[in-house]
Each structure stands twice: as C-alpha cells, then as structure tokens.
Amino acid sequence: MNYEIIFYHAGRTAETEKLLQTLLTPYDLEGSGSKAATEPSDLPALLKDSVSRCRLVFIIGGLDGSHHSTDTLLSTVLSSSGGEIRSEKLIDDSGSTAYLLRAEQQTLVLLPDETEVIRHMMEKRLLSELQKSYELTYREDSRPPIETITQELDRQLSAMPRKPVGFCTPDPVSPDKGSSVLRILAIVFGAAAVLQGTAAVILLFL
Questions:
Q1: Which end of the chain, N or C, is less packed with Cβ atoms under 10 Å?
Q2: How many separate helices (H) and strands (E) can be counted in the chain?
Q3: Could you tell me which of 106, 129, 120 has the C-alpha nearest to residue 200?
Q4: Percentage helix, strand, coil for the chain under 3-state DSSP, each rounded to 5
Q5: Could you give the dihedral angle defined by the CA atoms of residues 20, 58, 130 and 49, in that order, rounded to the nearest 10 degrees?
Q6: CA distance 157 to 24
C-alpha cells in the first residue's frame, strides 16, 4: 500500500522521509511521493489531491498553535459533509501533539516537524493503529548478507549450461483504483467538525 507526505512549514523534509520509510517499509507501506505547502491556501488542494490517490497521508509540520496551524487551518477551511470521521488527538510525555483522522479506509496523520517526536509517536501508538486499520503484517528482514547471495548466484550460474534465452512481453498491469469520491469527501470535507474540539485525547506515555 502506498502513502504520501505533505510538508507544511516543515524544514526537515529529507530526514523525515527517510525516517518514515524506515518505520513503514517493514509493513509493506511504500512512499509514492511528497510535496510541500508553502502557503496556508496550498494545503487543502494538496490534501484533496493526495487522498484521491492514497488511503494514507501524512501532513508534517505546522502544529504550532497559531492561526495558521495545520489543525486550525483545516478546521477553518473544511466543512463537514456528514461522513463518519473518527479523530484522536495524541499527546506525548513532552507535550507534543499529533492528530489521527480516519474515515472508512482513509487515514490522515498530522505530525510535528520533529523527527524524534515522530519516531516516538509512531513506535508508541501510530504503527499499531495503522497495523490494525489495514491488517498489516510486520515483515522481518531475514535476507542473508549480499555477499552470501552473490556467491550463491555465481555458483548456480556457473553450473548452468549455456543456451539461447527467449524474451517475452510482460502482461500490462492495471493501475490501482483510486479512493471513492465519497471517501475522499468524507476525510477532506469532513475534518472540520472533528478538529473543532471533538477529538479524543490519548496520552502516549500511559
């Protein structure tokens, strides 16, 4: 399954992308792109575009409590469409805040632009939540060292008789189906009511 990242007033983009890749790859979650919202007006359009392609979207940065904060901005510019939205406000032991929004099979995660906080929140709560939501299985990396693989391949190739090799054209692969319009509208246009004080609070250090 793919996910996308939207950076909003964030500076540690490469570091954050690498961290999320490290944390999510063992669950067969693959990053399909990232983009940056430099102005408050950019965020809603980028979000709508991302949720039209991915069931999992991360918004990194902008949780500073100002009137241009990510959560404030979303609650201001988005209006409820009546879709069922589940929201959780996550607070760690240092007081850092994140949000987890879910509508049907779509998930939106709002995280601060601090890699250590992201790592703590992901490992403490968010990874388990994503695992349950999408029935993900942790895949242990049991591959042998590359030297062992290379030696074994050399041994097998040396033992094989030489013969002509034919080529074939692979079957075309159908693109993944995008999220339904109702699901997109549910999370994009339904987040306002959720962020306006209805979010449940989870203390990550309990």
A1: C
A2: 8, 7
A3: 129
A4: 40, 20, 40
A5: -130
A6: 35
Read off the DSSP letter of residue 114: -
Return the axis-axis angle of helices 42-51 and 70-77, rounded to nearest 10°: 80
pTM value is 0.68
Q: 153 pairs with which residues across the strands?
A: none
What are 178's two structure tokens? 């995008």
Q: Residue 59 and residue 34: Cα distance in Å, rounded?
A: 10
- Report pLDDT digits (tens) over 157-168: 677 665 554 444
8 A C-beta contact, residue 70 and residue 182: no
Cα–Cα distance, 35 to 27 (Å, whole number)? 23
The listed range with the strongest mean pLDDT (30-39, 62-71, 147-156, 185-194) is 30-39
Residues in the chain: 206
C-alpha to C-alpha distance for 46 and 36, rounded to whole angstroms: 8
